[in-house]
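Model it.
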Amino acid sequence: MVDNEFLKKLSQNLLKTLNDDEYSDITIEVEIFHIILRYIYGGKLSLEEYDTSDIVKILVAANELCLQELVTHLQSFLIKNKTDWMEKNFNLTYQTSFENNSFLELQEYCTNLISEYPDKILESLDFSTIPENLLISIIQSDNLQIDEVQIWEHVLKWGLAQNPGLSSDHSTYSKDDFISLKNTLQRCIPFIRFYNLTSKDFADKVLPYKKVLSKELYTDLLKTFLYLHPNSKPSEKSKPRMTKKYSQTNSENKQIKQSHIGSLISHDSRRNNVKKIIADISDEEYPMSHESRRNNVKKIIPDKSNKEFERL
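Modeled.
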């Protein structure tokens, strides 16, 4: 427990800070502030008692109060115990980690996830709220372990989320609707590897949104996919991302190629089928002063159980 003299100084510091313009923009939720006060006065904090979202709020508040030991421990706790939550709520984790340079461990976690497992970010619950630059960084990655058509669908989903007035039904779009979506996606589209799509994916998923593509890109894609078998890709122009977690042997590849020979349809039939598909598509988130906080808060370290802190 903390002695009365410490509590007296702490209260004085709080009053001074409330009148200090330098900290006038610091806001801490009452419940979160009470948690930190109980920690300062009692020397303990049982993290298992709180939701992960509250732990993130405690982290932010601890940083504002310059409780660096607490900041370090909270980051470690999140990374070791709450990765599933952080993956599902990646944008919140990402935005929080880069608010300042005190959350270096979280920043490293986010950077590694973006680099090594970008597909997990696309599948996160708050994917549609990520900033444009982060989206571009993700879709540029060679490490995406999902099909290109899914990447395109996620980019469309993100674009629609930035335009809440747009329906998910593209057939109802006006010319202005397509222009709005095109303007939103213009920096993302160059990083979609359309040539990794199959002819069917192109016809079913891209052609309905042809008006968001540049004329040059649309024309080239049309020429490229027009004569292909529905399940084929334009191998001469494709740029595959990282290979899947398994690879096929040469003999397996040969067997697959041979099994496909019998299913190939004639050149004219392919052309007519693709033309028919094309024709069916419609055009149209009680601070203290800086020095006082550091002088008043004693050194805190996590115990061996990693579930609570005790004051030395």
